[in-house]
Structures are given as C-alpha cells and as structure tokens.
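Q: Focus on the shape:
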Amino acid sequence: MNMPIERSLNAPVTPVGRDLSGMPEAFRRAYGPTEAFPDDLGEIFREDSPVLGYRGQRTINPRSRNACRIFAVFPDLETRLPRIYGLDSQTEYHHLALTLTNPSVLQVREQVGPVRFRRVDGSIGIHYFDLVITYKTGRKVAVAVKPTSRLASGRFLTELTQIRCAAVPEVADKLRLVTEQCFSRTAAVNAATYLRFALCPDADADARLEETVAKLDGELTIADLIILSRTGSRGFRAAYRAIFEQRLGLVSSGSINLHSIVRRPQ
C-alpha cells in the first residue's frame, strides 16, 4: 500500500525573518567600538558641472546579449569637464581608466572610424578603433581591444595586419592590440575610482590633507591619516586623489582602501 502524500512538503515555505538588531553590538564585541572619523570640515556643497556628450564616431547599441555596453562619465583631459565615454566591453572600460590616468597622455578618443581595409579574400572591411590615444609628444596610437578568447582562431590577427596597412600613418602612428592580460584588473579599478573622485574636487579637504602630510614622519594607514587631518568623510576621497596626483606616496599594493599604507612622498 502506498503511503499518503504529505502535501506540506511541496507547499511554499514562508521565510523566517531574521532579527539583526544585535548585529551592531556583535560587531563591536568582535572589533571594538566604532566611531565616526573626526571632522572639522562638515559637508561639501558644490554646483553641478555640465556633462559633455558622447563623441565617438560609431553608434553604440546599449542592448546586447553577447557583450556589455558601458557609458562611463570620466573627466575630459582637455577641458577637465565630465564627459560621456561609450565603450563596448569591461576590458575597454578598464583600459580607458588606466589610459586617462597616464600622465603622458594628452587626449583620448573612442570609437574612431570607419577605417576601410582590404581583407585577404579581396573584400572590403570596415573597422572602428576602440581608442585613439594622443600623447603629449604628439604621437598617436590606435588601440584595438579584444578578449584573448577571440584571438585563438587567428582570424582577427590576420585582419589586424590588413587594418594596420590602412590606418598607419593616416589615422595613427602605431597600432596596439590590448587584451585583459595586458593590465592588472586591480590597478584598473583603482584608476576608475580615482577618475570618479576627480569629478568632485574638494579644495578644502585637499589643503587640510596636504598640511598633515607635510608633517608626517613614517608610514600610516589612510584611516589614521584621516583621523590626524580631521577631514571626516571627505578625507578618503582626498587621500585617493593625492595618491594618484603624487601628493601622497602609496606603500602597500592591491586595492586602495582605508587600510592601505601611505607615507609622505619622497
């Protein structure tokens, strides 16, 4: 004889609510008391800046099932105003962030083209460069960004040779291929974070931090530096900007956070 079916096993289970009221106390027991950073500056107020539009020469369809599409707001190197950059992949996004924080770069254009080239079979192809980088020396480099998985067949590498013949020196002085293996993801995330912080300048916090850094003797964490400078919630962004603008030396490696070790620049 078959056992009767227990209907309650198939019934939807109502999640039991969790009481999180004791979590702050548990955190304090584990890590000690937590206090807000000392703050002599208060809140920051600034007016919105106009945002420059997308300048690429190729229309980017934001809807795609095979790749991500990114419209990032980063500073324009010539005007220092916020600008919309259109990108086809996260690798392009990371490479752009590293490029914009390179002190030798004068200007960056994305989605440059079309460049017509002749394929091996004689047909005409069209290519848009992901980036064209202009250096302060006047040298221009056209960049093609591709994941390593797209290079295994060798088809794109063959096309790239034909593209180079059509684009150099009319579009750029050199053609560069970039993949996700050409840079550190952590360094790219740090660079992108700095670019976002650079969109919100804070002269008061920067000046207070520089006064504190000038008196430093030895190494300390960014959290300790914020406490010494009494810059409160504005101190972390000020320290981040100071690191990339070489007003503060970074000793530790990896992702920049409150526990990163810094020192007075040499």
The mean pLDDT is 89.
